[in-house]
């Protein structure tokens, strides 16, 4: 016997099990009564069990038929739920978004995005990973991340990049630095200080921007320390090992013996951009980008 059990067999069986009447079930299914009878008989042969007791007056489920009716109802409920979930995933209402970020993005942009996602698309799961700019670019290109938050001037052609936050820079000085913040006149006042910077490998765009800020003030900074963590920068400044220039947003979240001077008058700005792969098939991505760029 070459018959195989197919989904249609369960559809036909459930109709008869609910109606307990072959003609009514056939009308419900828009097939002929003899055709329905053949399908049920074929199903019984495949399963090697009798599902219905039939006579001229009534149709009754056997114990095996009762068991299969309950199981079939469960199966169709699961299929219906699976279809609903697939539609949600296809529309980007459910699924997962993998996000890479620089630490400074966590002070404003990413928390707002996560709150918006929780409000608009509560079934979307998020995973976060703090990575340097270049590592984020590589991960997005390899489809290991869906979104990245970077400070870069350019990215490969396969990626889309859009600025999502424009910030000023702030000078970071030890609390005991021998100059009051109100006496600040310009960056030229700090030409002889040691500077602590994010490393060029970690953020080349940031590094070159700081170089240009100092160049505009007429000097090349003496770089004494480089790091990849804002906390380390502030700790070094606190201990009088140098001064720093950081995006102003980094002021929040750190309580140390340092003082800030916001550099409002300079032309340079700290730009945070979001990147994603143009042909990324993840349907959740569009909803995330739409929320981010609203």
Verbal overview:
A 5-stranded mixed sheet has the order 4-3-5-12-6, sandwiched between helices. Strands 10-7-11 form a 3-stranded antiparallel sheet, with helices on one face. Strands 1-2 form a two-stranded antiparallel sheet. It has helices spanning 7-19, 22-29, 33-47, 63-90, 109-120, 133-141, 204-216, 230-238, 283-292, and strands at 52-54, 59-61, 95-101, 124-130, 147-150, 159-167, 169-174, 194-198, 222-227, 244-247, 258-262, 270-277. Helix 1 packs across helix 2 and helix 2 (22-29) packs across helix 3. The chain has 9 helices and 12 strands. The protein has 3 domains: 7-90, Winged helix-like DNA-binding domain superfamily/Winged helix DNA-binding domain (Arc Repressor Mutant, subunit A), CATH 1.10.10; 95-165 and 272-292, D-Maltodextrin-Binding Protein, domain 2, CATH 3.40.190; 169-268, Periplasmic binding protein-like II (D-Maltodextrin-Binding Protein, domain 2). With 294 residues, it is of the alpha/beta class. It starts with 6 loop residues before the first helix and ends with a helix. Helix 7 (204-216) links the parallel strand 8 (194-198) and strand 9 (222-227).
> Strand fraction band?
15-25%
Q: Can you say what the CATH homologous superfamily of the largest domain is?
A: Periplasmic binding protein-like II
Strands of the widest sheet, in order across it, are 4-3-5-12-6
Secondary structure class reads: alpha/beta
Low-confidence stretches: none
- What is the molecular shape? rod-shaped
Counted beta strands: 12
**Roughly what percent helix?**
25-40%
C-alpha Rg (nearest Å): 33 Å
What would you say the CATH architecture of the largest domain is?
3-Layer(aba) Sandwich
Name the average pLDDT.
Answer: 91
CATH top level class name of the largest domain: Alpha Beta
**What is the total number of structural domains?**
3
- The rounded distance between the terminal residues' Cα atoms is 61 Å
Report the order of strands and helices: HHHEEHEHEHEEEEHEHEEEH
Q: Report the biggest beta sheet as strand number plus sense, adding barrel if it closes.
A: 5 strands, mixed
């Amino acid at each position: 016997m070459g018959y195989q059990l197919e989904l249609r067999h369960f559809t036909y069986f459930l109709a008869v099990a609910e109606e307990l009447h072959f003609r009514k079930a056939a009308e419900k299914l828009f097939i002929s009564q003899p055709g329905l009878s053949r399908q049920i008989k074929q199903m019984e042969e495949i399963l090697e069990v009798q599902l219905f007791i039939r006579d001229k007056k009534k149709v009754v489920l056997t114990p095996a038929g009762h068991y299969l009716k309950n199981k079939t109802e469960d199966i169709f409920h699961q299929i219906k739920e699976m279809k609903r979930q697939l539609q949600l995933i296809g529309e980007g209402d459910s699924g997962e978004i993998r996000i890479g970020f620089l630490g400074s993005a966590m002070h404003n942009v990413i928390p707002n995005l996560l709150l918006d996602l929780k409000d608009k698309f509560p079934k979307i799961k998020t995973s976060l990973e703090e990575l340097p700019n270049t590592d984020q670019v590589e991960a997005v290109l390899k489809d290991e991340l869906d979104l990245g938050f970077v400070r870069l001037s350019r990215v490969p052609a396969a990626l889309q990049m859009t600025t999502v936050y424009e910030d000023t820079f702030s000078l970071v000085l030890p609390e005991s630095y021998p100059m009051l913040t109100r006496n600040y006149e310009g960056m030229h006042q700090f030409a002889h200080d040691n500077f602590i910077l994010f490393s060029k490998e970690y953020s080349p765009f940031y590094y070159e921007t700081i170089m240009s800020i100092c160049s505009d003030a007429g000097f090349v900074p003496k770089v004494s320390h480089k790091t990849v963590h804002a906390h380390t920068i502030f700790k070094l400044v606190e201990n009088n090992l140098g001064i720093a220039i950081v995006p102003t947003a980094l002021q929040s979240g750190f309580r140390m013996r340092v003082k800030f001077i916001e550099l409002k008058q300079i032309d340079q700005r700290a730009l945070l951009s979001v990147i994603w792969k143009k042909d990324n098939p993840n349907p959740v991505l569009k909803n995330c980008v739409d929320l981010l760029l609203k």
